[in-house]
Design goal:
Blueprint: E1 3-8, H1 13-22, E2 28-34, H2 43-46, H3 61-67, E3 70-73, H4 81-89, E4 93-96, H5 106-113, H6 120-124, E5 127-128, H7 131-138, E6 143-145, H8 150-163, E7 172-178, H9 193-196, E8 201-202, H10 211-222, E9 228-234, E10 241-248, H11 255-265, E11 272-274, E12 292-299, E13 304-311, H12 315-329
Length: 345
């Protein structure tokens, strides 16, 4: 019997991507979808590319919970906590693509998102769903906080060096670029085509709310507090995240040792593709896939490690990773439904 999956917020970009990926999943099927904006309308009317493939009518979230074994919430922050509590009461698995359960500190959540933890015990029961780094914490859990795009790409780029103490934990810079789908489906001035096209700019410099989440992950790996400088930029493309992370190499550590450490750290990770020396991670090569391409580089003049990571922000940075987490929670092949070859051109 297939896993019955429900999607709350199915008409947003991440929700629609869940629909696309789950349609080809061998062990799961979509049981119900919901949308506040399009309740009562067919999903295929909102996204014509799904015509005859998914003509489900958008229902309310209660109907989705009732019909599903696992509920994916693709909602803005602040809307998932009550939904998660309902799923817990119904003994349903809940995977949150929003930010409500990502930060362990309520103080930080209040500072960066302006909210509070409605049920502290519920937060304690959640697991942070970055499988390549915290797989053992995900197994056996029913509440998963699915990381977003920047908070997946940046830590994966530098994790092996941080976890093995090869670089200094001070002065780390995460210089990241994102496609415009990361801003969501609702139009804004910044995502308006004439404003975006033929432009390229930084935004929320040193003040983006993903900063504490990146620091939380790296601090866990380092075993001590890590502070980063995080600067996101908006690319005039639909999809993709490129994270370039700079860190000072510790005295006596060779680049050969760093490369060997990366090779060992990721050797069993199907979705991590460590490129050969001379290669550069490129968002073009991971489109529509759950892969994360990583290239590492040595600046001998400054004795710095430069680690580049590329993902599709809608897949590994959202829906694909959520399905990867579902696979872990339900004890099936972690790669199920996600072995997708990126288009060559």
């Amino acid at each position: 019997m297939k896993i019955k999956a429900g999607i709350v917020g199915a008409t947003g970009y991440a929700g629609a991507e869940l629909v696309r990926l789950l349609a080809a999943h061998p062990k799961a099927e979509i049981a119900a979808v919901s949308s506040v904006s399009f309740e009562g309308e067919k999903l295929s009317d909102v996204y014509p590319s799904y015509k005859f493939l998914n003509d489900m009518v958008c229902e309310n979230s209660d109907a989705v919970i009732e019909k599903s074994d696992v509920i994916f919430a693709a909602l803005p922050h602040g809307l998932s906590q009550e939904l998660a509590a309902k799923c817990r009461a119904e003994k349903k698995s809940f995977i949150d693509l929003g930010a409500d359960f990502r930060l362990e500190s309520e103080e930080e959540y209040t500072e960066w998102y302006g909210g509070t933890f409605l049920d502290k015990k519920l937060h304690e029961q959640s697991a942070y769903g970055l499988p390549e780094l915290f797989r053992d914490k995900i197994k056996g859990k029913r509440l998963i906080a699915n990381p977003g795009c920047y908070t997946t790409c940046s830590p994966l780029a530098i994790a092996p060096a941080i976890a093995n103490g090869l670089v200094e934990t001070k002065g780390i810079i995460c210089d990241c670029k994102s496609g415009v789908t990361g801003a969501g489906r609702k139009p804004t001035q910044g995502s308006h085509f004439p404003e975006l096209n033929e432009g390229f700019h930084a935004y929320k410099v040193a003040s983006h709310r993903h900063t504490p989440e990146i620091e939380q992950t790296l601090s866990k790996l380092a075993g001590k507090k890590v502070t980063v400088t995080f600067v996101p930029h908006l690319l005039p493309v639909n999809r993709g995240i490129l994270a370039t992370v700079y860190a000072d190499i510790k005295e006596g550590i060779t680049f050969e040792r760093i490369r060997k450490t990366y090779e060992n750290y990721y050797k069993d990770e199907f979705f991590i593709r460590l490129l050969d020396d001379g290669g550069c991670a490129d968002i073009h090569n991971v489109r529509y896939s759950n892969f994360c391409d990583i290239s590492i580089h040595y600046d001998s003049r400054a004795n710095k490690l430069i680690a580049c990571a590329a993902i599709d922000n809608m897949v590994k940075g959202a829906a694909g990773q959520a399905i990867q987490n579902m696979n872990i929670v339900f004890g099936i092949d972690e790669n199920a439904g996600l072995v997708i070859v990126p288009p060559a051109f």
